[in-house]
Amino acid sequence: MDLKGWINAKSEEHRLAQEQKRQAESDRAASETERVQAAELVHRRQAELDSVKPHLLRGRDCAALEQYFRSLLVLRGEVKSFFPDEVAADFALRKLVKSLGLGEDELNVIRQEVSYYDEFAKQQLLGGFASSADMGVISCFFCDFVNLLGAGYEFGGEVQEFFRALAGGVFKLSEGDIQSLELLCVKVASGGHWLPNEEFGVIPVPVLECYLETENGAYLVVDLSGGSQSEKYPVRYTQAAPDPSSEACRTTELWMKRIPGGTFLMGSPGCEFGHCFDERQHRVTLTRDYYIGIFPVTQRQWELVMGKNPSRYKKVGPFAPVERVSYDDICGKKRRWPEDGDVSVSATSFLGCIRGKTGLGFDLPTEAQWEYACRAGTTGGLNNGKELTPLSNLYEVAWHSGKTHPVGEKKPNAWGLFDMHGNVWEWCRDWKDSYPGDITDPVGAKWGRDRVMRGGSHITFFPTHFRSAYRARYVPGCRYCDMGFRLALPAVQ
Known about the structure:
14 helices, 14 strands, single chain, alpha+beta, globular
């Protein structure tokens, strides 16, 4: 082999070695990702089990509960083809067992016994259960059966035909009662909600309250655990506040608080320390309730929606607010709001993705919504009801120290919202402009050059920039390591 051939051979050896090295590193990264995802799934499922609420029938006679559960197991065994995900169905069964107050040992014993039932024993069990059950128990039974099919399972086709045959033939329900129960089960299967004034015939209200979330809950929760490849993000409403120290509400779940409409003084008086000329006080009325994020969107939440994390401070961890995100990243580069409403929100932007997977009109808060939510009834410089001096007042509610910090670690305001001061600047929907006079439901200027940002950040130099009234502005394409956001959503009235 001549020298040139030898050099080429060595070059090819090196190329192959580098390729093998890259492949090995890629395989290790994929393996680590799978390990982390598996650990997250185990943790999430344990958290779900720990948070299971008592079943509506819990506390009834033990024999009656066993009959109820055995009947569900018999039904489940007959329609195994309806269960697309056996692992998820088994987990749903474990949650049901816990809610009924039965133990894992009892579950295993009953499953073993039911597996030996012949056709006559199955018919006797179901017939006996159906003859003694009232409408409340029947409603629970069908809802639990649908829940065992898995979250978001489409209630239709063969499943619906079987449902109607069972409801009419075995439980002897009238056509009107079947239709009411059918409507309920469709709602349960799709993760739907109980809309105001929606009627469900003879189905008892406690059953509706147990299996459906009402769309006037104090909190709205988006389940992001399916990640960027998920086709749908389930949404639920609840009256129960989150535990701000828990991992889920800052990673796999996006929590929002319902803010009541009202009137407030926006801006600051000339005597407020740090007052700026563009903060002229004026009366603003917000006629509609709305939801707003309890925390700024975190790094993990952005990653679960968009598939990657653009933040500079990744080492702070998944609970830190996402940063280095521009208005354009959140809404799309061609957005012209309020000129064209929501028409120009990009389908590939953060808003476009979360709207498409929830069917809800999430957006950035308007500047008025942001300040109203931040103040939570306060009128001073900070939302803890205090002024900037001494600076210890600021440090109660804001991070002001060179890098981001995990959200939810400072004192919340009176409405339970965290990090409205400091950590990251938060984008608002409006163009920056002079304030008008007193106004109702303001949307800001029709057009402009800069979008509004609020709240101050971890690298904000002047303490006066953290005030509830302070207004910053940046061009929509800006991405700095102290720029983040939180979501807003109009509430169903």
